[in-house]
Amino acid sequence: MPWRVGRDLRHLCSAAHHLLERSRHSLHPLCLFTKPIHARASGRAAVASKLSHSHAATRDPAIGDTEISYKGQVDLESMLLRWKKPCAEIRGTPVEPKPPPEVLAVVDTIFSPKPTRLPTLQDLRESPASAELLKYLRLPQCAPTLVRHLLGTHQFRCALWVLRTAKEIGYNFSPKFYGEVIEKLADHRKWRLVLPLTKTAQEHLGYTTTYLLNWRLQALMEIQHFLSLQEALDMYAQGNVRPSRLTYHLLIAMQLRNHHLDAALAVVRAMESAGFRPSPRTWAVILLGYRPFGLSASAKSHALTALQTADRSTATVIINSLVQLCLDAHDMSGAVEILSIASQPRDDPPLDPGEDTIREDGVSATRVGDATTPTTMAVSRGALVDVSTYNILLNYLARQGDLVRSMQTLDEMRNSNILPDDQTAVALVRLYHAIDSVNDALHIVSDALKEFPSAAALLPRLGFQPTIPPTHPIFSGTARPTISLFNTFIAGTLVHSGLSGLKTVLHIMRITAVQVDNSTLGTVMSYLHHHDRPRPRELIRAIRLLMSAGCAPTTRLLHVMLAAVLREERVIVRPRGWTIESDWPEAVDWPTDNPQRDGDNYSHPTAGLQPSRRLRYRALMRPIIQSLTDRGVRSDRVAYALRIKHDAVVKRDPEMALASFQRMVDLGMRPNEYHYGALMEAYTAVGDMSRATKVMQDAMDAGVDINVKTYTILITGYARLGQARDAAETFRRMVAEGIRPDVPAIDALTSAFFRAKAYGMARRVLLQMWPQVAPLSDDIAEASLREMVVAFRALHHVKSHAPPRLSSREQRMLRWMIRDILIRWKVSLGYPKKEEKGNRRGRTVVPFKRTPKYTRAKTR
């Protein structure tokens, strides 16, 4: 009896403790840096009833600025899909002896000229120089030693050749050794070598396992070779093995990465039918791949429910994924709410027996924290916030160029005793390039190259001044020469140093033995498309050349190619801009192919976009598109944006553009400012400005971040119609929102008055708005209108150091300028001045129609 009384008392004390803790609603310190960021909270759905989620304003690489994605997502997926043994848990690992120098010399001789044809076993037996190698491979445990050594020195192709040669000699490798080699290749993301190795292991062993097939499935996903659910299950059925929970998690990640939400939900249902109920890790995998679809209310509810029963590492991934989705949608209040949940104390729940805690080969996976009892291990306040959370915030702030709050986030990281990692260094390189602190970014790269003096000696070619200390934190010792660091470094170097700087970076990568990947190629292609503006034929031939070298084309390369073709078609159909001689160029009546709408294949990699036969690019593009089609690649948001713009600008069919937009929404993908902007162009192209304005209003209601490009589309539409007053009113609304005008916006406003035959007012607009972009020189003020327009447009590609938003004083000044311009223009047309009601000083102004003012929702 006393024991039961004591047990009940302990339960009551525990319940009271939890009740008191829940009543203390506290915010994580990170919330303080998230709340003041300028953003617009998500609002109601705009286009369809399905569109009940928030909308992010991400930058699609082939359409506008490069989309900055969280680079640590790959590491999070790897951690979720496969538990890895921590380095501290590995005890007593014996150091293997190094192979004899003469054996390594034979291998180096074979691979030194990079042969296209590797020698066979018969060739080795006929060569006296290969006798030492064959003799060594016949000794016990020598073949695995040589393979491990070659893997450790990053000679992956050579290691696989040695493995196959040793097997032909008669050496039998264990299934565990094949798994060790595959894991080593996966750590270095050599997925194209994982595929043949899994096939080789199956042939050598005479059977396959779920473990090997899971690796094969993940390799197919990483090289963008997507399988349907039935195709994947047939692969396991042919091997006479049963899919595991990890199999279904891989299939969910594969379908979400292929932008196929319905197929991912079908995999979840199939997993339940197979006896695997969804676990917290299942929802973590879903959230990691859910970024193209936005954070829906149901997904958030399920994720928070799974958070209650998730272990510590899975709960951290769920928190980070929710924060990332909120930041994608610029939902600051949602991010604050998630961070406040992460700061609440919680008890780590017991392990769910349904989770992936057992490998397929029967070896239990050791996890962080297994040394203590999970049911009694309490998680301290803020333990769910780790370095990945700070990296997500730093990447978001780097995209906005917000140095002040980035430094505050770093200070909070120090105060929380959270050590930065290599992804923190990548985020800082991106941030310092965004704020033009190039020397600080080079300091971080130099710290990563401290083990490669010859590579670090090349950095002064990029403007590195090692004698000047960094002005911002660089966290020495955290950066490593990884492909993620170099891809970010290349993106910044191309902006500041151009292609000459790219040569230097590629030379550094060769010295550090870091090979380029698909992201590197996509970054370079996107830069060439936006800056050098090559003809589409040159880009297509470059991609074809990569295919002949064995590189499969990716969706990003396809997007750059289609964007170049669309740009050329757009110039032919409707030339951009306006000239002094020809007023405004009229649209060219160029017939285009109009397939049946019911036959449009929106799931095609190009989203059904068909370039005109007049350009004769279809034959050149066919092998590239066929490669993507054969791998099951579906259209994504970028392809839909290009399709909508093609329907809008080239075909001039607003209804078809709206149908393409609606199809994307029906598939669950969230539209961003590029999709709404393309739809607005469809209506402005036919002169339907009321519908274009309604689309922009819908975008604002849906939480899309409206920028200067969106307003420029409206101003250009009014300018084509010669409605200078409406163009000026739209410009004034843009300024009232705090958006700083750029060269295209001011140029469009100038063209509106020029189209209305108010040439003096056009000159006045250009002179008054010029200081918003660059200082106005005296010689320009005395030039003709034509010379002024040519000089002003040349400023478009000059990098501006002005802040992205207007101050309150600048807004008042610009609104006064626009009002003064309209007053003078009305007087020049002969309209009488009207006195404003309630004007105490007797000023005469033109009464403007009341325009709705859109204010940002205040965050908590």
From TrEMBL:
Segments of this protein annotated with the region Disordered: 343-364, 835-860
InterPro entries in UniProt: PPR_rpt, TPR-like_helical_dom_sf
Basic residues composition bias: residue spans: 850-860
Keyword list, A-Z: Repeat
Annotated Pfam families: PPR_2 (PF13041)
PPR repeat residue intervals: 244-278, 386-420, 707-741
Domain of life from the UniProt record: Eukaryota
Protein family according to the UniProt entry: Belongs to the CCM1 family.
Assembly and oligomerization: Binds to mitochondrial small subunit 15S rRNA.
Protein task: Regulates mitochondrial small subunit maturation by controlling 15S rRNA 5'-end processing. Localizes to the 5' precursor of the 15S rRNA in a position that is subsequently occupied by mS47 in the mature yeast mtSSU. Uses structure and sequence-specific RNA recognition, binding to a single-stranded region of the precursor and specifically recognizing bases -6 to -1. The exchange of Ccm1 for mS47 is coupled to the irreversible removal of precursor rRNA that is accompanied by conformational changes of the mitoribosomal proteins uS5m and mS26.
NCBIfam families referenced in this protein's UniProt entry, alphabetically: PPR
Protein name: Pentacotripeptide-repeat region of PRORP domain-containing protein
Lineage of origin: Eukaryota, Fungi, Dikarya, Basidiomycota, Agaricomycotina
